[in-house]
Every structure is written in C-alpha cells, then in structure tokens.
Design brief:
With 329 residues, the protein is of the alpha/beta class. Helices cover 28% and strands 26% of the residues.
C-alpha cells in the first residue's frame, strides 16, 4: 500500500542576546551567566527537537567596541555554541559592529566566531532533506535600508524560503527611535515565506499576513537599553516547515525561556536612575550634535565626522561613543 511521505524542517530562532562581560549597572545578578544560561536553553531546545538549524537575527553582543568584549567571554560563547547539534546561522546586528559599519567585522568579537566557524555568517544557505530544500537568506543590519535594492535569491526548487533581517518592523510603517520602521506589508512584497526579525526589543509576536509569516518575538535580554520593558519575557521561536506530497504547511510558535522575576535581577531604584541619566545624555548629545552641525554645511553627523582630520580608529570611536550615549541603535 502506498504511504504518504512527510518531511519536516525545524528551526529555532533568537535575536538581540546582547551579552557582555558586565551588564547594566542596575543588574544585581551575574548578567553574563544569565545570558549564557539563556543560550544554553536555546541549545537544549535545538538538541531535543532535532533542529536542522539555529538562527540568530543579530546583536549577539551588546558593546560595539571590540576592546570591551573579553577573550574569556568569546571562549565561553564558543564552548556553549559548540554543544549545539545543529549549525548556527547568524546575521550581523548593529551592536555587533563599530559605528554600524560592516567593514569593522574583522576586528569584532563576532568576526572571531565567524572565522573559526563556531557561527556561520548567513547570506544564503540551503538546507536539504529527503530531496526537499529550504532556502535561508540573511540581510545584515544596514542603516536606511532600501528594500528595493535587496537581491534576494530566487527560491528555485526550494519548497520554502526564510529571510533573516535586523531592522524595526511592525504592522504599520513609520519611525521608531529615529529609525525607519518597516511595515509587514512592505516586507511581504519580497519572495520569502517567513521573515525572522531582530532589532525590535519589544515582543511583537508571530504574525501572519496572507501567506507570509513574521517572527518578531523581541530580545532575549532585558533592560540592556533604556527603553526596554522589565516586564518583557524573553523567548525563542520554533519554526516547522512540513511538506507532504508537495503540499507545504507551517507551524510557528514562541517558546518562553525560564527567567527570574525582574525584582530578583534588577535594583529598581538604580534602574530609574539609569533611565534618567540616559535621557540627560541623549539631550546633551543631541544638542551638541545639533550645534556642531549648524556650524557646518554638512547636515549629517556621520558625514560631518567622516570629514574631520582624524584617523579612522578615532573616527570609529567617536561614532561609537555617540551611539552608545544616545542608545538609539
């Protein structure tokens, strides 16, 4: 008797881990160990569910200055990631780069993990099983990204395509923290069936529009940025793509991580002080930038700094300090 043939592809996703040797001043736990534990929970899910791949949608690190991420931190990450039974694909987030420049990757901690193959730099990969294929495409963080310029590979004979991006996205287009927020309807104009999104720390859930899915589950970390809600519950996502007699079906759901309540990991008074200080710094930097640019014919802070008579190293640090101070990206 003829028997139907079913093939499943399983992926576990995460984003915005923001690990560092030392956490925000208001954290009273061991921030690094807490984040390593969350990665371990992701690893357990991957191994127990026999995932075909793990996907990280940017911002593994919190600090953009490579000198502030220790060799010990990288070694601990390598030790943890090596215990995954599946390949781990990742795109670069803005916090993984100096001054948001992809050219800085070779000097970054993430560049080390890509170089030794602990993580696989995602651009285009194809997962094949039982003669069926799934395409996975990665788009690293890009300032002011023009979606029409993206060259997304065609699906060809793949049953489905996943696109991993690091950008703000939601139900309606607009702006968020002075950055463009892309509407799901804009992303849906592209060919992928599933979009795995990083950058937005607040949980936007898993959303379906027509035949497109958007995985936008928020950051794995809590309280790293001033605008983060301490009520946010970190999670990872489960994606199953099934094909049976050439009919493709999808199952997507969030998996909540085991975490401690916020009062056990945050000094709430210090947290309020941090937020107040950040707002004061933001105001000061914006005023400084505004007054500096007003004296220049160039109205872009990036362009203005690029024309200063300083070395590239100093220029990168200037941009880093501005971005860290404003905590806008």
């Amino acid at each position: 008797m003829w028997k139907a043939s079913m093939t499943d592809f399983i992926f576990i996703t995460a984003n915005d881990i923001h690990i560092s040797d030392n956490g925000p001043r208001s954290r009273i736990d061991n921030f690094k160990e807490t984040m390593l534990n969350k990665i371990a929970q992701m690893r357990t899910a991957c191994n127990k569910l026999n995932a075909d791949a793990a996907i990280i949608a940017g911002d593994l690190y919190n600090l953009k200055d490579p000198a502030r991420n220790s060799h010990r931190l990288n070694q601990e990450l390598i030790n943890e990631f090596k215990q995954f039974d599946c390949p781990i694909y990742m795109i670069e987030g803005n916090h993984d780069l100096t001054a948001n420049r992809l050219e800085s990757l070779k000097k970054q901690a993430l560049g080390v993990l890509f170089a030794d193959k602990t993580l696989i730099q995602l651009r285009h990969e194809i997962i094949e099983k039982n003669g069926k294929k799934v395409s996975i495409v990665g788009v690293p963080y890009t300032e002011n990204l023009d979606l029409t310029t993206l060259d997304i590979p065609k699906k060809e004979d793949c049953i489905s395509q996943i696109c991993v991006m690091h950008l703000y996205a939601g139900l309606k287009p607009g702006f968020l923290y002075k950055e463009r927020l892309y509407g799901y309807n804009e992303l849906a104009q592209m060919s992928p069936n599933i979009f795995v999104l990083g950058h937005y720390h607040a949980d936007q859930g898993i959303y379906k529009e027509n035949d497109k899915y958007f995985v936008n589950i928020g950051s794995m970390s809590r309280g790293v940025l001033s605008e983060d809600s301490l009520d946010h519950h970190p999670q990872i996502a489960y994606i199953k793509i099934s094909v049976n007699n050439n009919k493709v079906s999808y199952q997507l759901q969030p998996i909540k991580l085991k975490i401690k309540p916020c009062h056990e990991i945050f000094d709430l008074k210090k947290r309020e002080e941090e937020i107040k200080e950040t707002k004061e710094i933001e105001s000061f930097v914006e005023k400084l930038v505004s007054e500096t640019i007003e004296k220049s014919k160039d109205k872009s802070i990036e362009n203005f700094i690029s024309k200063l008579d300083i070395t590239q190293t100093v220029r990168d640090k200037v941009m880093h300090f501005i971005q860290e101070a404003t905590a806008k990206k």
